[in-house]
């Protein structure tokens, strides 16, 4: 049987298990030399800022999850590294590549109202402006009945309740980081003209689901099948996706912002290897013929307890790159 993560007292997670929302802003930032203290101050104030903007409209479910990249950890905290934190591992497949791009901080801001996301993001960036460089900024939105811009329902297999906690939250296996999680983000750009030129039946075989009814199909080389990972005991290894469509009709850029939370990055990394490097049944995920990954970064999401009581800032000499 799959090992259950044992709880650790006082390990309150960030709101990674919050419900899917209709709006989001994704900010990927790098911390400039000398900006470490400012970044730490904002991380420590994150929940208070979230409460300030969301207090009057609790039904909007405003939240912000912060992640820290591998290159930034030793610059920000005099504390042992999370066991699974490492730079995003790029993949070069026979036809497509998963690229690695810079990122020291991830701010995943979400709510049912975009104005609240905007207000919180603006305040965070006002505080961080001189301390960071914006590597990527993507506003996401719910499209129709929770579909991506390819026309298929996204996030169908997300775990809920206890299953979500087991899939996402670190327990006693890394007690110094209990209540934390890992998150991988990738920005995918779609060639919608080429995709929409395909017959619906071909699209369905590529995805592995029916378009109208969202029923899973038995397609061994489909996107769904390549992203189904099982452990040694045959049980499916789950992650929590909070993907959002994004686009610029005037600029002609359309895509999906992939964001996957997990207790260990291993599961998501295996999914990506299946997609880009292939398996015995497929040379690659055929969705990649129409969807190009232009970013890729791995972050660790500390618990709220960690953010409330941050470890000391490393000595200046220890922060030098």
Automatic annotation (TrEMBL):
GO cellular component: cytosol
PROSITE patterns the UniProt entry points to: DYP_PEROXIDASE (PS51404)
Names of the cofactor(s): heme b
GO MF, one annotated term: heme binding
Entries under Pfam families matching the protein: Dyp_perox_C (PF20628), Dyp_perox_N (PF04261)
Keyword line: Iron, Metal-binding, Oxidoreductase, Peroxidase
InterPro entries found in the cross-reference section: Dimeric_a/b-barrel, Dyp_perox_C, Dyp_perox_N, Dyp_peroxidase
All copies of domain Dyp-type peroxidase N-terminal, residue ranges: 14-142
Keyword Oxidoreductase appears in the UniProt entry: yes
Protein name per Swiss-Prot or TrEMBL: Peroxidase
